[in-house]
Amino acid sequence: MEKIIEKLKNKQKISAREVRELIRNRKKLPRELFAVLAKRVLEMGENFYAYDLAENIPDHPPENLLQKIHIMALALARSGSLERASELLEQLPDSDDTEIVGLKSRILKDMAANTTGQEARRQLFKQSARLSLAVFEQKNQYYNGINAASCLFMAGENAAAGKLVREKILPLCRKFDHPGLWEEATLGECFLLLNECETAAEHYGKAADIAVNNGLAGSLASTLKQFYMLAAGFPEDRIRQIVQQMHLPAIGIFSGHMIDRPARPEPRFPACAEAQVRRDLAGIISKRNIRIAFSSCACGGDIIFMEEVLKAGGECFIVPPLPMKDTIANSVDIIPGADWKERLFKILENKNVSLFEPESDEIGVDDDDIIYDFTNRYILGLAVSRSEMLHFPLRGVTVWDGKKSGLTGGTDSAVALWQQKNIPLDTVTPEIEK
Question: pLDDT tens, 192-243?
């Protein structure tokens, strides 16, 4: 813990796992580091934790209070609590601070998106544009400029938006030496507003790559939210083409068969099929660009899937149905002479793995199906919530023989849950030697 705190203090890069370790032990964190951690948590897209951390930032000196309210309001705005975010910002005196003005503009923009009346919606977009344009003309910062242009576009003033992009924003963007996430996202938005969709997709794709490779999924979510708001002004097929070219990171939810026990009368996932299943899973992970994964941790499909996600540089969230000791006894260390338990421990040591606490602490002959069914539903809820928050596509992945067992909590039960939610599905079927 002390080593992670030192890394945070020295502004060194910390992994998602280390961030979650700091969140769990935040009572040990020096108060001067709450703001640093809250910002990092926001970048990851953990808005509720960011708000909780920001509440601990001291109110004095005055710049601390400004930072505190900004983080709390941004966390609320990203979570959809626009009225509460606006109330927080009203506590601040009038300011030309670009982050505060930008957040006020963002709240107006989000309120417009949630307004059904066409004229009221247009006026809110125009009000947001005026706020951003005023500070842009004063400080000439590209991010205020692009927000103003986008709001003008959403207010129906397309010509004014295009002129602002061509004459003022793009000249600033062309000065970028080494574009990062925000610079690439801004370039994508510029070219989208100019209806140069292929170039827009190229820059949005670069922004997505930067975000995923640097743990900035929360920051990318803001870009994607703006993109989908702008998308309403374009033909659906054009937007679909841009999204395909972006090759956005996907969230994968997994359920699959355990490896067969030696005495299983009818093969379902025999050990000899492991190499084929691994190869097929790796292909799906690559093709779908799965970078965030949710699953349990049974021997067989679960463990192989997580190994391949981690090999591809992704992040895994593991949800065991029972305390780990019982999960291992019931679902992992069940094949004599196999190394599934050791492989699971190796996964758990990976810095890109987060382990959830189980929601059940015991199992019995009458309620085990209920526990596994609940775990399937819990994993689904976590994945859907993450997908909606980050604006990343959600895909189901399964290792399944296609047969319906009728057992509550089994693989086919999980697949049925996904199908009810219209979640796209990739299936790997173990090859059975005849």
Answer: 999 999 999 999 999 988 988 887 888 888 899 899 999 989 999 889 888 8
Q: Which residues lie across from 354 on neighbouring strands?
A: 317
List the chain domain ranges.
Answer: 2-246, 250-428
Instruction: Using CB atoms within 10 Å of the CB of residue 415, give its burial: 0 to 12 exposed, 13 to 18 middle, 19+ buried.
Output: buried
Cα dist. 68→38, 76, 84, 286 in Å?
A: 9, 12, 15, 40
Angstrom CA distances, 433 to 94, 270, 271, stand at: 73, 9, 11
Tokens, residue 170: 């793009």
Task: Sort 329 into a burial class: Cβ within 10 Å, 0-12 / 13-18 / 19+.
Answer: middle
CB 44 within 8 A of CB 220: no
CATH topology of domain 250-428: Rossmann fold (3.40.50)
Phi, psi angles (nearest 5°) of residue 21: -65, -40
Residue 238 half-sphere exposure toward CB, CA atoms < 13 A:
16
Which CATH fold topology does 2-246 show? 1.25.40
Per-residue pLDDT, 138: 87
Categorize the per-residue pLDDT at 361 as very low, low, confident or very high, splitting at 50, 70 and 90.
Answer: low
* 106-126 average pLDDT score: 87
Alpha helices per DSSP H over 289-339: 301-311, 324-327
